[in-house]
Amino acid sequence: MQLVPGSIGVFQLWDQRRGIACLAMETSTDPDPRWESWRRARPEPLGLHLDTAAAGRSSRAVLSAVSDHALLEARAGAYVAQEMAADALAASRAAIGRLLGMPEGGIAFVESASVALSTLLQAWPFEQGATVAVAPSEWGPNLATFTRHGLGMVDLRVDADGHVDLAELEDLLASSPPSMVHITQVASHRPLVQPATEIATVCRQAGVPLIVDAAQALGHVDTATGADIIYATSRKWLTGPRGVGVLAAAPQCSDRLRATLTASHQDPADETIGAALSSREAHLAGRLGLGRAAQDLLEMGPAAVFERLAAVGRATRRILGSLDNWRVIGPTDEASAITALEPAAGQDVMGVRSRLLRDHGTVTTAQQVFRAPRDMSSLTLRVSPHVDCTSDDLVRLREALASL
Ligand SMILES: Cc1ncc(COP(=O)(O)O)c(C=O)c1O
User: Fold this and answer.
1) Which listed CATH number (3.40.50.1000, 3.30.2310.20, 3.40.640.10, 3.40.50.12160) goes with 61-300?
2) DSSP secondary-structure letter at 249?
3) Domain boundaries, given as residue ranges, for the chain
4) Which of 167, 168, 213, 169 is closest to 192 using CA atoms?
5) What is the Å distance from ligand 1's center to 71 Cα?
């Protein structure tokens, strides 16, 4: 047996006799208590959860924040409970604001990332013939939403891996500027992180608004990018509750957004743009749970979590990269914990996803082309572990996939 050191703290143990690559992260021999405590802070998983990009596993603290408020609603009356939770709700907005680099008053709570985009497009005053510039990796349902709102689409030029080309962007904004630029900061369907901060700088210099879909980015990478609008969901990498989304507007957008709002949007108790864009009837317990999840991330140190997630993603791609019957989709070195696998031997991806769950207790996603119709051509299997993932987990997955 020979030991081959890899790049991100991964060691490859190559058993030539069996011809099986068995790889292990350094953390399995030298456990980091921080990521173990992340796991211990959550209820015991039923199996191997490798599906954070669909929905992450909430901590007990988040679950308690949700259930405590639901209980208070039943005991005090829902609207009295809302008044009693005013400070905690303000703290939720402040914590999300810190993660997005947006003022607390610019944070609106809605039900999901999709609702956030629709709310934004309803409020944003478009002129006839307005256009939005998007990259090929754009989340498919967003493309449908742009079309529904009558927006024409302009293609952003990208490099070979799919990152927006900044020089080409500068040229586009100087020669024929679209009404807005929209990027999905972290792609859902493969490892791809857009240079959102740099894109924001180019857009600001050209005076073109930048909207960022941070559904897969919040809690995963730095989302304080300087964009004009950022929207996201609670349930993925931040591991907050389902059914809560966030729409955040920078101060320079407030007047533009207010122009289209009607009296029904106004909240006499809170005149911020965040309150005006928030859904009226709402799962307040979920908003408190989201606030708890955001505060937990801030206490843990976002930079360390983002670095760990990038390392977990690279380790996943390295370990699965030696499979004969699956091809890892690149770029493999990307700072994303999302990995996508393409069948190399004609496997039925839906069937594999079901068998991983049924026979191996492993949760993954079978991804259909609608997720990124301009960047995908066939079904792929997505694996998206969180910070607590160990080398043993990845070796288990590798063995399961090799056997299917
Ligand atoms: C990149 C991206 N954008 C938007 C969404 C939609 O989020 P939601 O289901 O909260 O509407 C998703 C969901 O997976 C996503 O991955």
Assistant:
1) 3.40.640.10
2) E
3) 26-50+302-403, 61-300
4) 213
5) 29
Q: State the alpha helices, DSSP H only, in 59-214.
A: 60-76, 78-84, 86-100, 113-123, 140-148, 166-175, 196-206
275 CA to middle of ligand 1, Å? 22
pTM: 0.94
Q: pLDDT at position 264, please?
A: 66
User: Which region, left, alpha or beta, applies to residue 346 given φ > 0 means left and ψ of -120 to 50 means alpha?
Assistant: left
234 lines ligand 1 (CB under 6 A): no
Residues 267 and 275 sit within 8 Å (Cβ to Cβ)? yes
- Predicted confidence band at 4 (pLDDT cuts at 50, 70, 90)? very low
pLDDT of the residue at 20: 42
Q: Which CATH architecture group holds 26-50+302-403?
A: Alpha-Beta Complex (3.90)
> In 112-235, where does DSSP find H-type helix?
113-123, 140-148, 166-175, 196-206
For ligand 1, whether the C-beta of 213 sits within 6 Å is: yes
pLDDT score recorded for residue 259? 75
Ligand 1 within 6 A of CB of 274:
no
Which residue, 295, 252, 244, 264, is CA-closest to 108? 244
* Residue of 5, 57, 80 whose CA lies nearest to 241: 57
Tokens of 317: 């791609």
In this structure, the chain runs to a length of 404
Adjacent-strand bridge partners of 245? 110, 233
